[in-house]
Amino acid sequence: MIETFSKEDREAVEFLRKQASHLLSRKYDTDYNLLRWAQGYNHNHEEALEHLVRHLKFRRYYDLDNIQDRKSDAILEKYFPLGLVGPTGKDNKLLVIECAGRIDLQGILLSVQLNTFLTQRLRFQERMLSEINRMECDNGSQSSVTYILDLEGLKFDSKLLSVVTGPYRILWASVYSNYPEWIDEMLIVNAPNFMAILWKAVAPLLPERTRNKVKIFTGSSDWKTEVLKRCTPDNVPVHWGGTKVDKNGDPKCHEILNIPNDLIPKTLYWVPTPEAPKIAELTKVVIPSGGNHVVRFRVPFSDGSISIAINRFAERTYSMAVYHSDDDGAINWDLTQMNDWAPDFDYPGMPTVDRVIAPIPGGGIVKVKFGNEQSWFRSLQVYYKISFVDANDQPVPYECIVPTAA
Asked: In this protein, which residues make up the domain named CRAL-TRIO (predicted)?
């Protein structure tokens, strides 16, 4: 335990480590990682533990400790500009710049499947977390991110609000719920004249702690001075007020930051494949407001590894979770009696049919829940196809039991 922790911090970290020891991996188990959960929930031990356990199951399901080993998506690598610049030079903070105004929002949604988008963002989050952990280990103090969200180039159109308050909000919510207290401060710079409209739509959807960390600057304001209050000049690219250039003398440091200026070509838009077929080839279910739909499976036991393969599509936000038990009697159990192997999270509706493959503990009873809990009035159409595969992506026999609705 780091001695600079307060008594309250030490007690919180020791409590969380003890209670979550069965899920903590060696890589994630650091004092500061656990402290962030305590801080994010105002040192309410039980509430912090609940959300930590949910995250640790999320980490296991997506194998976040090893997510950097997965192949990066070429489209997102080129057209979705996220950049980890390096230490700010002040207060053990890390500088991250996102040129969000240059993102082809509609093109991303039409080109990339949900799981690919989420995986790419999680890869970046884990890269940031690894650097934060390294800085904490080297300097003996807690680290976090100074985040510059640059909206230069953002153009308003009729679809912008629905995209920002829909898919992007849900994806950011997933990031915040799994990485508490990672942002020290977010500086939104080059905010357009319609920023007030965007903020009015987005702000109520953000937690208060998050809203309080956001500062908004128009393009005509002296935001570069504000950046340099938080960073030393030689740690900030010239374009954002510092003196840093890459080895080519580029003031935007394109070697670190990919800043696209073009729309995604329509030739790169997603098209159905045998792995992720047309919507019409999936099973359709209509879920009433506040309800859910559960699909039940009996999977034979096997000596080898088994994964669940899910195609999914929804017109708007839905929740999904995967439950498992090796007890055959679980076919009639309530979901709360089973192991939530993939915890319940919200996912955004996107124009593409998604495909996600993830391991399950083994044979037995598996239940997949799709939910419409967020809606008060509107029903939701969800489309899905679920199967099981072995380590070589070959089909595994299974029995699908008649689904139930609630």
From this structure: 72-248
